[in-house]
Amino acid sequence: MVRASRSGFTLIEVIISLGIMVMIAGLAWTTLAGSIKLRDVLAEDDAVARSARVTLNKLSQELELSYITDNTTSVGTYRTVFTGEDDGDESILWFATTGHRRTYMNSRECDQAEVTIWTEEDPEVNGQMVLLHRESGFIDQEPDEGGAILPLARGVTKFQLRYYDGTTGEWQETWDTQSTETLNRLPRAVQIVLGLAAPDPDDDDDFIEQIFVRTVVVERADRTTQSAFSKSSGSGSGSGLPGIR
């Protein structure tokens, strides 16, 4: 009687197989963890870009339709300003605009509004700021008071504004419609530089700065004079706005 031979794995073969399986599982986990981290980084970058886009669109709409009143001596009139101050990486701006949108039906508001844009330190995140937006649907003698204050963007690292003078063809760091140099004149364009904190893919505890720049043409400003435009385009370091008139 012939016995059937039994075949199987030896202990060494089993150990080697388990080792190979562990190596494959480790490689798969490393690849999966890298893919998940990359997905999270891309999602956070997209959130930063979306926040910048929403912020710049909001500011662009209001700045394009900014205005000042010419006659401030009539009875019952109101005072409007376009005043921008610069403090290094932080700017503050007061202005009036016709870009206001009513949020409540039948409310006693129109398209005019007083707006203030400025930054304050974020109490929750060290080294970052919050971009605040004040909007009042009622124009009065106090262009810097009243209205609702809401955060426009968080994680702000830089907020700078520059103003293009259509008369001189030069960029200004500040603007004031009550000063003698720019009395009752709007800037022809406003350049917005917005820096937002994005996660650092190499260090979870740190962040990197992403810069977003947009130039907004103020529709109600005086047109750029030919002499100023010629001066800026001939110097090679002028307005950088060849399409603006």
Would you give an account of this structure?
This protein has 2 helices and 10 strands. With 245 residues, it is α+β, with helices and mostly antiparallel strands. It has one domain. Strands 1, 2, 3, 4, 5, 6, 7, 8, 9 and 10 form a 10-stranded antiparallel beta sheet that branches. The protein is elongated and about 105 Å long. Residues 227-239 have low confidence and may be disordered.
Count of spatially separate domains? 1
Q: What is the makeup of the main sheet? A: 10 strands, antiparallel
State the distance separating the first and last CA atoms. 108 Å
Q: How confident is the prediction overall: mean pLDDT?
A: 80
Quaternary form: single chain
Which parts are unreliable, with pLDDT below 50 for 5 consecutive residues or more?
227-239
Order of helices and strands: HEEEEEEEEEEH
Shape: elongated
Name the helicity range: 25-40%
Helix segment count?
Answer: 2
Q: What's the total number of strands?
A: 10
Which structural class do the helices and strands define?
alpha+beta
Radius of gyration: 29 Å
Strand percentage:
25-35%
How would you concisely characterize the structure shown here?
With 245 residues, the chain is α+β, with helices and mostly antiparallel strands. Helices cover 26% and strands 34% of the residues. It has helices at residues 11-64, 226-235, and strands at 66-67, 82-87, 90-97, 113-121, 129-136, 148-165, 170-172, 175-176, 189-200, 203-217.
Layout of secondary structure:
Elements: H1 11-64, E1 66-67, E2 82-87, E3 90-97, E4 113-121, E5 129-136, E6 148-165, E7 170-172, E8 175-176, E9 189-200, E10 203-217, H2 226-235
